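Hey team,

Sharing the CXADR-like membrane protein run so nobody has to redo it. Sequence (325 residues) first:
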Amino acid sequence: MSLLRLLLLVSYYVGTLGTHTEIKRVAEEKVTLPCHHQLGLPEKDTLDIEWLLTDNEGNQKAVITYSSHHVYNNLTEEQKGRVAFASNFLAGDASLQIEPLKPSDEGRYTCKVKNSGRYVWSHVILKVLVRPSKPKCEMEGELTEGSDLTLQCESSSGTEPIVYYWQRIREKEGEDERLPPKSRIDYNNPGRVLLQNLTMSSSGLYQCTAGNEAGKESCVVRVTVQEDAEAPKARLVKPSSSSSGSRSSRSGSSSTRSTANSASRSQRTLSTDAAPQPGLATQAYSLVGPEVRGTEPKKVHHATLTKAETTPSMIPSQSRAFQTV
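Structure output:
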């Protein structure tokens, strides 16, 4: 092959090596992947444009094409309705626009332009960044003075690496935003921080921020330290021996008095049944005392009953004797 023919062949395939560009964009945003050519005015049925995507697994698929005066942009279900030519591709700008971006759009894009047997290739590496999801703040430990407390913060999704940062939120004038003294950060797990030897001044609002190249999110947790519960504040009252003895004496005296009264009542009842006083109505006492069997009650004469009814001073006297017990 002559040198002249080789030079003509190289010039015929202009831009075979193409260009390489790397672009980073955040998910849900818009991106434009550049592709320019200088192949002159297209002739009829000679201009072809094709965008190809090679994903991170090595699979290749067509994204958008132009051929025979038609644009085909619904070639994949994942990118349907989200891809289009960004400008006038017939005039030399065949850039690709994707909106909104999704993590599945990440990969290596190749733009191929052909016109009248000449080709232009360009390559764009697209990296889609995902913001950290809103982290979840948690506490582990006892909220008492002198105890240790672990604060945990973690995002469930987001582009690595994710950086975590803990700080206090100033709620009052003069409060410090730094963590309390003797706080330790777990460098193997930056989302964990240990608050040692809690004090009442450790109480407050703590914020964890998770961030990466795409952005940041945060969560807060309130720490309320309570006083040490080892020494109860309730006052213990011991029972008094004198008052107890006094109550025992009163109880004993009441018991003795009750026993004595019972005995007295029994004696009085027995003595009343055994020897009724003359001049009293025996029917009034027969209802209280037990019935004596085998003994015929004495007959009461009308004169005696009349005399008993006319003696009102005896019955109240007996009633007062029982009421004083």
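The first strand starts at residue 20 and ends at 26.

Ping me if you want the raw files.
A.
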